[in-house]
Protein backbone atom coordinates (compact mmCIF):
# COMPACT_ATOMS: atom_id res chain seq x y z
CA UNK A 1 0.00 0.00 0.00
CA UNK A 2 1.29 3.45 -0.89
CA UNK A 3 0.00 6.67 0.60
CA UNK A 4 0.46 10.18 -0.73
CA UNK A 5 2.81 12.34 1.34
CA UNK A 6 0.16 15.06 1.55
CA UNK A 7 -2.42 12.59 2.91
CA UNK A 8 0.02 11.40 5.58
CA UNK A 9 0.77 14.97 6.67
CA UNK A 10 -2.92 15.87 6.79
CA UNK A 11 -3.73 12.74 8.80
CA UNK A 12 -0.97 13.33 11.36
CA UNK A 13 -1.68 17.04 11.64
CA UNK A 14 -5.43 16.56 11.98
CA UNK A 15 -5.23 13.80 14.55
CA UNK A 16 -2.68 15.63 16.71
CA UNK A 17 -4.82 18.76 16.80
CA UNK A 18 -7.76 16.58 17.80
CA UNK A 19 -6.03 14.71 20.66
CA UNK A 20 -4.11 17.73 21.98
CA UNK A 21 -7.33 19.00 23.53
CA UNK A 22 -5.79 22.00 25.32
CA UNK A 23 -3.74 22.93 22.22
CA UNK A 24 -0.48 23.39 24.11
CA UNK A 25 1.56 21.30 21.66
CA UNK A 26 1.90 18.40 24.11
CA UNK A 27 -0.47 15.47 24.58
CA UNK A 28 -0.84 13.77 27.95
CA UNK A 29 -2.56 10.45 28.61
CA UNK A 30 -5.61 12.15 30.11
CA UNK A 31 -6.24 13.96 26.83
CA UNK A 32 -6.11 10.70 24.88
CA UNK A 33 -8.44 9.07 27.43
CA UNK A 34 -10.90 11.98 27.15
CA UNK A 35 -10.91 11.64 23.35
CA UNK A 36 -11.61 7.90 23.71
CA UNK A 37 -14.53 8.64 26.04
CA UNK A 38 -15.89 11.23 23.60
CA UNK A 39 -15.64 8.91 20.60
CA UNK A 40 -17.17 5.95 22.48
CA UNK A 41 -20.73 7.12 21.90
CA UNK A 42 -22.38 3.90 23.06
CA UNK A 43 -20.11 3.75 26.17
CA UNK A 44 -19.24 0.09 25.69
CA UNK A 45 -15.53 0.61 26.37
CA UNK A 46 -14.44 0.05 22.79
CA UNK A 47 -14.43 2.00 19.55
CA UNK A 48 -16.01 0.68 16.40
CA UNK A 49 -14.58 1.91 13.12
CA UNK A 50 -17.59 4.24 12.75
CA UNK A 51 -16.91 5.74 16.19
CA UNK A 52 -13.18 6.05 15.49
CA UNK A 53 -13.81 7.99 12.29
CA UNK A 54 -16.30 10.48 13.72
CA UNK A 55 -13.61 13.01 14.68
CA UNK A 56 -13.08 16.05 12.51
CA UNK A 57 -10.86 15.33 9.56
CA UNK A 58 -11.26 11.55 9.56
CA UNK A 59 -12.26 9.97 6.32
CA UNK A 60 -13.99 6.64 6.78
CA UNK A 61 -13.20 5.87 3.13
CA UNK A 62 -9.49 6.57 3.50
CA UNK A 63 -7.26 3.51 3.20
CA UNK A 64 -4.77 5.21 5.53
CA UNK A 65 -7.47 5.60 8.20
CA UNK A 66 -8.45 1.94 7.79
CA UNK A 67 -4.85 0.79 8.03
CA UNK A 68 -4.08 2.87 11.12
CA UNK A 69 -7.24 1.57 12.82
CA UNK A 70 -6.26 -2.01 11.98
CA UNK A 71 -2.71 -1.38 13.21
CA UNK A 72 -3.99 -0.25 16.62
CA UNK A 73 -6.48 -3.14 16.80
CA UNK A 74 -3.84 -5.49 18.16
CA UNK A 75 -6.25 -8.29 19.10
CA UNK A 76 -7.90 -8.05 15.64
CA UNK A 77 -11.49 -8.09 16.95
CA UNK A 78 -12.57 -5.15 14.79
CA UNK A 79 -12.71 -2.73 17.72
CA UNK A 80 -10.24 -0.55 19.57
CA UNK A 81 -10.37 -1.45 23.24
CA UNK A 82 -9.53 1.30 25.74
CA UNK A 83 -6.23 -0.47 26.47
CA UNK A 84 -5.35 -0.50 22.76
CA UNK A 85 -6.30 3.12 22.11
CA UNK A 86 -5.19 4.77 25.35
CA UNK A 87 -2.72 2.67 27.35
CA UNK A 88 -0.74 0.84 24.67
CA UNK A 89 -0.83 3.68 22.18
CA UNK A 90 0.27 6.32 24.69
CA UNK A 91 3.12 4.21 26.04
CA UNK A 92 4.37 3.60 22.48
CA UNK A 93 4.29 7.32 21.67
CA UNK A 94 5.84 8.37 25.01
CA UNK A 95 9.20 6.81 24.18
CA UNK A 96 11.09 8.51 27.04
CA UNK A 97 8.44 7.82 29.68
CA UNK A 98 7.99 11.43 30.80
CA UNK A 99 4.19 11.31 30.57
CA UNK A 100 4.09 13.72 27.64
CA UNK A 101 3.94 13.25 23.90
CA UNK A 102 5.31 16.22 22.00
CA UNK A 103 4.33 16.98 18.45
CA UNK A 104 7.76 15.64 17.42
CA UNK A 105 7.12 12.35 19.31
CA UNK A 106 3.69 12.10 17.70
CA UNK A 107 4.98 12.77 14.18
CA UNK A 108 7.80 10.25 14.64
CA UNK A 109 5.46 7.55 15.96
CA UNK A 110 2.85 7.96 13.22
CA UNK A 111 5.46 8.18 10.48
CA UNK A 112 6.78 4.81 11.67
CA UNK A 113 3.25 3.35 11.79
CA UNK A 114 2.54 4.51 8.24
CA UNK A 115 5.85 3.14 6.95
CA UNK A 116 5.14 -0.16 8.68
CA UNK A 117 1.71 -0.33 7.05
CA UNK A 118 3.16 0.53 3.63
CA UNK A 119 5.57 -2.40 3.91
CA UNK A 120 3.06 -4.83 5.42
CA UNK A 121 0.20 -4.01 3.06
CA UNK A 122 -3.25 -3.23 4.36
CA UNK A 123 -5.33 -5.76 6.26
CA UNK A 124 -8.61 -4.81 4.60
CA UNK A 125 -11.70 -3.83 6.54
Q: How does the SSE layout of this entry go?
A:
Blueprint: H1 5-19, E1 26-27, H2 29-39, E2 46-47, H3 49-52, H4 63-72, E3 80-81, H5 82-93, E4 101-102, H6 103-120
Antiparallel strand pairs: 1-4, 2-3
InterPro entries: EF-hand-dom_pair (IPR011992), EF_Hand_1_Ca_BS (IPR018247), EF_hand_dom (IPR002048)
Keywords: Calcium
Protein name: EF-hand domain-containing protein
Describe this structure in words.
InterPro entries: EF-hand-dom_pair, EF_Hand_1_Ca_BS, EF_hand_dom. This protein is mainly α and about 120 residues long. It has six helices and four strands. It has helices at about 5-20, 30-40, 50, 65-70, 80-95, 105-120, and strands at about 25, 45, 80, 100. A two-stranded antiparallel sheet has the order 1-4. A two-stranded antiparallel sheet has the order 2-3. Helix 1 packs across helix 6 (about 105-120). The chain starts with a helix and ends in a 5-residue tail after the last helix.
Provide a short characterization of the protein structure.
The protein has helices at residues 5-19, 29-39, 49-52, 63-72, 82-93, 103-120; strands at 26-27, 46-47, 80-81, 101-102. The protein contains six helices and four strands.
Question: Radius of gyration over alpha carbons?
Answer: 14 Å
* Pattern of helices and strands: HEHEHHEHEH
Beta-strand percent range: 5-15%
- Strand order in the largest sheet: 1-4
The first-to-last residue Cα distance is 14 Å
Question: Mean pLDDT, nearest integer?
Answer: 88
- Overall shape: it is globular
**What is the β-strand count?**
4
Please summarize the sheet with the most strands.
2 strands, antiparallel
Tally of helical segments: 6
Structural class: mainly alpha
Give the low-confidence spans.
none
**Share of helix among residues?**
55-70%
Amino acid sequence: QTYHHHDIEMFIDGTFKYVDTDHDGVMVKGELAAVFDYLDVDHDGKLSYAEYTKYDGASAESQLTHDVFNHFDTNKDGFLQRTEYVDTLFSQMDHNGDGQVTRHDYDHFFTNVVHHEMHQGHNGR
